[in-house]
Amino acid sequence: MATQLSVDQVLRLTERELIQFVKQNITNEGGTWNISNIVDWEDVSQAKSELLSEKLLGSPVRHTTTQSPSPSRSPTVEPTENATQDYQTKCYQALLDDGCRPLFPISLLPQVSANADAYYDLLRPWTRYPDMLSPEDWEVFSRQLRRWKEFRTWQLGNRRQTVGFSEYLDEQRREFERMGAAEFAAQPIFEQTVRQQWEGEYGHGQQQPGGDDAEAVLSRYAEAARRLLIDCGFVQPFQLHPDPKQQDQWTTYVEYLAFECFWLGRLARSAQKLRLQHDAEWEGLVKADVVKPLGACDDLRSTEVEDMRGRELERAARAARSFTAVTGTTATDTAATDMVKETRTQPTRKPRARRGQQPPSHTQKSLQSSQSPIDDIARRNDLVNEYVHDTQKYQTAKAEVDYQQRRVEWVQSEIGKIMAEQRAAGKSGSTIGAKSRKRKPIHDADLKPPVGKHKRTDETKETVVDGRSDYSRTTRSKKRKLATDEETQGPQLKTEEKVAGEIDGPGTKAGKDRRVSTKLDRWKNQGKSLHNTSLCSSLVLQEIRRCRAKKSGRVPRRKAEG
After folding, report:
1. 147-153 long-range CB contacts below 8 Å, 24 or more apart?
2. CA–CA dist 126, 139 (Å, integer)
3. CA distances in angstroms from 375 to 371, 385, 431, listed in the order given
4. pLDDT tens figures, 240-251
5. Residues with Cβ < 8 Å from 6, sequence gap 6 or more?
6. Quick one: which of 406, 520, 412 has its CA closest to 471?
7. Exposed e or buried b per residue across 287-313, where buried means at least 16 C-beta atoms within 10 angstroms of its C-beta
8. Secondary structure of 447-472 in the HEC alphabet?
9. Where is this region: Disordered (predicted)?
10. Angle, vertex CA 57, rays to CA 55 and CA 60, nearest 5
């Protein structure tokens, strides 16, 4: 007969013990699982149920059920010594194939598995419970993959879309192959079982892609996702795609953040409800004079309090036995002892009165009055037991909220990383930002006169009249030839020239400064000494006035040079 264990006991099993337990509870005929040997699996929370599922599915029992090695193995693939690492590696690859970002690179897996405590901060977003250390905390890729599949199902459900049975069947086969249960996936019963599971998930009349109101459904879903994200502090705009597989990674992770925020709100509301119930039960204990008002509620869970409850129960039982010794009733000692045992094991049960039973005599009434302290203590223990049980539920709910909050923060950090990676790669998007196309300033010395069909060399020659050159005419001629040559270029070059012109064109301050600088250099070459600061400033002002006057149509009066 197989051993019956609780969920907590199964979670604490070592790898060797887990293998033995799984082998005892899987039949050889059809590979079915006998869940009845896990006694309290129906009463545990959803999070602990997920832990149990991960524990059982991740069991390396596949490597111990057969004594003979695999008949064929590819010579290019070396078998992994650690079966669990092998499974985690396959889950890692499955995450990449489905567009999910694993928690850490696969090259770090041997170090993390060898010393998970040293990587506590790295594993923190995907650890099971903050106050429940487990040697399997490093097995994050399988948990990530299972959570990502839940998100993918959530994506389709909110779009009123379904997964075809063939696609669903292939995915289930791949999952069993990753776990090393390819033999079971090849059995005829496998497809029948998967079809029943598929009908249970997608057989609720969900809308097929391309329905009449698909756009309205997506719009309502996007608005609900925005509200969820705002509650978590995310306010960036995004646009969901009707087909989740066509979305970019940034938008998919924003939608994934909405999924995790949804569960954070749900867990927080559940924890708040348990907290109110927890406080009400404590007030009930205080009003019943069971306990004194204490600041720390965890005192009732201590060993000293449990021992105190047992001592008080034994003291009440001894008082009942003393009364029976005085009255001469010998059976009361056994009755009192049985009462103590019953209140310890099942304090909520009370004996029912049988039909036709005679009313109690005076002696029996006295005996019952002597046993009333036991009843009072039993009732008190009922209240305390209920409080302690609900306290454990409340503590677990708080831990789940904290666990989910860390996961939400991790997804937010991944969104920031994706944005930085896309910007670095030069990808553009309305929500990510466009790549800058700013060009470096172009100087006249760097521009070579283009060789065109209608090159007018006479206008590019300098004409010195009264010690000054016709620089303005030369510059305008070059600009016209640049414009003529620009017409022969492609649209990309025209756009770049337009951007460059907006930055440092002839009408801008940078263009004017270049002309002044070139003019000063020309004067310097003609023998004008510019070492005198006042003379340099005067020449600059003269050139600026001349340019402004020419633009306005007035010719300023020139001072004699020298």
Report:
1. 148/95, 148/98, 148/100, 148/256, 151/256, 151/259, 152/98, 152/244, 153/201
2. 9
3. 7, 15, 68
4. 999 999 999 999
5. 38, 39, 40
6. 520
7. eeebbeeeeebeebeeeeeeeebeeeb
8. CCCCCCCCCCHHHHCCCEECCEECHH
9. 59-83, 326-375, 421-535
10. 85
Q: Which residues of 33-55 are buried (b: 16+ CB within 10 A; e: fewer)?
A: eeeebbeebeebbebbebbbebb
Q: In this structure, are residues 485 and 493 in contact, taking their beta carbons and an 8 Å threshold?
A: no
Q: Pick the residue with more confidence: 152 or 67? A: 152
Report the greatest alpha carbon distance in the chain: 146
State which amino acid sits at residue 106.
I
Residue 202 near residue 232, CB atoms below 8 Å: no
Per-residue pLDDT of 276-315, as tens digits, reads 998 888 788 778 776 666 544 455 545 555 455 455 546 5
454/477 Cα distance (integer angstroms): 12
Both structure tokens of 80: 């992994």
Which residues make beta-bridge pairs with 129?
132
What is the pairing mode between strands 464-465 and 468-469? antiparallel
Which ranges of 26-119 would DSSP assign to H, the alpha helix?
46-57, 83-97, 109-114
Mean pLDDT highest for which of 65-79, 286-300, 407-421, 441-455? Answer: 407-421
> Which residue from 513, 486, 301 is spatially nearest to 393, judged by alpha carbons?
301
- Any long-range contacts for 6-9 (C-beta under 8 Å, 24+ apart)? 6/38, 6/39, 6/40, 7/38, 7/40, 7/41, 7/44, 7/48, 7/49, 7/52
DSSP annotation string for 397-415: HHHHHHHHHHHHHHHHHHH
3-class DSSP assignment, residue 20 = helix
Give the N- to C-terminal CA distance of the chain in Å, as an integer.
Answer: 119
d(CA 35, CA 155): 31
Region 77-97 average pLDDT: 77
Contacts with 367 (C-beta within 8 Å, 6 or more apart), sequence order: 323, 324, 327, 329, 332
Higher pLDDT, 15 or 253: 253
DSSP 114-142: H-GGGGHHHHGGG-SBTTB--TTTT-HHH
Q: Write down the residue that tokens 């596949």 correspond to.
A: 62
Domains of the chain, residue spans: 1-65, 82-145, 272-351+361-424, 444-552
Q: Are the CB atoms for 195 and 165 separated by under 8 Å?
A: yes
Calculate the alpha carbon distances from 508 to 98, 290, 474 in Å. 52, 86, 19
